[in-house]
Write a structure and sequence with these properties.
Layout: H1 3-11, E1 16-24, E2 37-44, E3 50-57, E4 64-70, E5 74-79, E6 91-111, E7 114-121, E8 123-125
Antiparallel strand pairs: 1-6, 1-8, 2-5, 2-6, 3-4, 3-6, 6-7
């Protein structure tokens, strides 16, 4: 295959079908009863609905799995503290989709009255 054709095809994609985030963590200890939280943000820039499987991996137990859909040309933000994950427990995340998406993980840390925000694009595979 012509190298330029391969590059052109890559730029016509709208993300990837597999995403990984190795560092997930919900922290306790926020000010005024507020706890830290994480959000998994998923952008579907395609003309088709994205059917997504989200798997959470732990060091001491089997993975848990959730399913979500993202309509065409839409973006969703999933608060991970609303999914029943345990606080103070590290986890990793794998996101699989039937169409190419872009996934991002953001963490709002509230520790001893100080706020900090971390956001990262995950590792992806084609």
């Amino acid at each position: 295959m012509n190298p330029l054709t391969r590059i052109r095809e890559r730029f016509e994609m709208n993300g990837s079908k597999k995403w990984y985030f190795a560092d997930g963590y919900l922290e306790i200890g926020g000010a005024k009863g507020k706890n830290s939280h994480e959000a998994l943000c998923i952008l579907n820039a395609n003309e088709r609905e994205a059917r997504i499987r989200i798997q959470f991996f732990f060091s001491d137990r089997d993975p848990i799995t959730f399913y979500v859909s993202v309509p065409p040309l839409r973006d969703i933000h999933i608060r991970l503290d609303s999914m029943g994950l345990s606080y103070e427990t590290p986890y990793g995340i794998k996101v699989d989709s039937n169409v190419e998406i872009v996934a991002q993980l953001s963490r709002m840390s509230i520790h001893k009255g100080r706020y900090s925000l971390m956001t990262t694009i995950g590792y992806w595979e084609d």
